């Protein structure tokens, strides 16, 4: 996978008509597609674009002042109540993907079904909060898991290293 901040086509390469067609296609029910690989590519491109935008945001704005959703306070309090010891600075894939983790995450995610639009859409999440998105540092998660972990990282200072390294011009 190309790093999200590399300009290699992607959704940005689409014209207005093509982008509208993609948006319309993505609004259809999942059952309409079966296992269409083109849909998977579109979703991967959308997730990559989201990752690039988010990383640019935490690189240029002090993450402690970011508000990702209208429900940040609720997301953070419920997240830390249900996952008080989850090490968000450097995640292990087992924290999200093991059968036990999935059983714990499922009820958490469902609490936000009506609160967060597209709460269960796929998105990319950095494993190590001090590093950029890369093949080795990225895991697939749901949007609400992304919000929960990134809101916590912002509030707890885990993303400060990204902001300060970009601000000072030092390499990541």
Describe this structure in words.
It holds the Pfam family PBDC1. The protein is mainly α. It has one domain: Orthogonal Bundle (yst0336 like fold). It has seven helices and two strands. It has helices at 16-26, 37-60, 72-82, 94-97, 99-110, 143-155, 160-168; strands at 122-126, 138-142. Strands 1-2 form a two-stranded antiparallel ribbon.
The count of domains is 1
Helix content: 40-55%
Give the CA-CA distance, first to last residue: 19 Å
Q: Kindly state the number of beta strands.
A: 2
CATH hierarchy, class: Mainly Alpha
> Which structural category fits the helices and strands?
mainly alpha
Widest sheet: strand ordering? 1-2
Uncertain runs = 1-11
Q: Give the integer mean of the pLDDT values.
A: 83
Summarize this entry quickly.
The chain is mainly alpha-helical. The protein is built from seven helices and two strands.
Could you list some keywords that capture this structure?
6% strand, 172 residues, disordered N terminus
Spell out the blueprint of helices and strands.
Blueprint lengths: L15 H11 L10 H24 L11 H11 L11 H4 L1 H12 L11 E5 L11 E5 H13 L4 H9 L4
Antiparallel strand pairs: 1-2
Helix pairs in contact: 2-7, 3-6
Pfam family, one: PBDC1
InterPro entries: PBDC1-like_dom_sf (IPR023139), PBDC1_metazoa/fungi (IPR008476), Polysacc_synth_dom (IPR021148)
Protein name: Polysaccharide biosynthesis domain containing 1
